[in-house]
């Protein structure tokens, strides 16, 4: 029986979808002001991917929606500094996001709505909130009236009896008069002519952050849907606000299960650019690490536990992933006699049961990985003693493929890039640098890194090598 820890109830609950055999998931996606970091990939990459893959493994038809926040204060600031439109500025980070998803072995969500393409849905929702007394206007901006939603706080369990002025906006630009300090912005009026704005029935302005997820999740999944997920930092205020806006507008329960991934730390500390311990996924690829080892490391700790990312751990993950691949190759290439070995048959059944029991238990990935390792130990022992038979070989190879439909760590037989393709991209990168188009040059470097090609700029030109050689 599949169970999830639901932040809303504070308990482990059996998963029951709204429609039999189908699941709708809304995952809060990235703000594309920069390349996504490895913490982002723990949450919206590997955790989101495991959730969708395991639900599919259990036989559900999954609709996985992940938004892209492409209008936000940092995006506005940096695009203006570069003299670019929002779309021009975010394009390279969005392209990089998908390259990274691919390299990390994560399937892309089925629907990927962008905030800037759903302004009218947000405006309609805000209008509805104004009509029903849940929102008000002040100096051209619109705010949600917290006192109109008595259940506010039910997700985060924060006691709002006291005054928590200023605690509610991640990007605090609420400079105008609000009825209550906790009220949060739904729509921000344009302040100066140069500021990006949409001309709407609410006036010229741009949406607040929270409203986008309410508008886009309900558009694609309905007013009530199954699973809403994201990182723990989003519980308050983002998800609390999403619940308030959505349930105030529809009078219906918004999402049934709320799943939150704990944060990733690096060498025991929270990541920050100033500490020098902030890594994007492509930073690690450029250092020569195997993307699937990164995936393995991100999977090795259950999503609700904090993950301490260390380079020692990553080197360990590289060895583990390599040994799993060797195990599969050895198993596949061994010549076997017909028949079966009852002990191995039992070991395979045990391993499958352990794997499913672990993942049913709120996606306990570390115990599920242990089930794979136990099996590989037993099978390796049988191989050493020539005790493996043809039926076992087939059964265990099939079992590995089943495990890998969820974990995707054994790796397929990917076609390697040809030398000429690599050289063409390197030449294009040199051209881009001469044109001082460093964005394109960086992009090519990232593209190559994602395909396992590491570049080294030397005095004699650019050298390249395949990772791990
Ligand atoms: P952001 O782009 O900051 O909105 O974050 C995108 C996603 O990554 C959200 O689900 C965040 O909760 C998650 N996230 C941000 N930082 C970390 C971290 N250090 N570890 C795990 N997840 C994170
Ligand atoms: Zn969101």
Description:
- The longest helix has 23 residues, at 311-333.
- The strands form 5 sheets. The chain has a 5-stranded antiparallel beta sheet with strand order 5-6-7-9-8. Strands 4-3-10-11 form a 4-stranded parallel beta sheet, sandwiched between helices. A two-stranded antiparallel ribbon has the order 1-2.
- Helix 1 (38-57) crosses helix 12, helix 4 crosses helix 5 (209-221) and helix 8 (291-299) crosses helix 9.
- The chain has 14 helices and 15 strands.
- It is globular, with a radius of gyration of 25 Å.
- The chain has helices at residues 38-57, 73-81, 86-103, 119-131, 209-221, 235-250, 281-286, 291-299, 311-333, 342-360, 365-384, 390-407, 419-434, 438-450, and strands at 3-6, 11-14, 22-27, 61-66, 135-138, 141-144, 184-189, 198-200, 203-207, 225-231, 255-261, 264-266, 307-309, 453-458, 461-466.
- Among the domains are: 314-413, Four Helix Bundle (Hemerythrin (Met), subunit A) (Up-down Bundle), CATH 1.20.120; 419-466, no CATH class.
- Mean pLDDT is 93; it is low at 163-172.
- With 469 residues, it is an alpha/beta fold.
- Zinc ion is lined by residues 28, 213, 238.
- Adenosine monophosphate (AMP) binds next to helix 1 and strand 10.
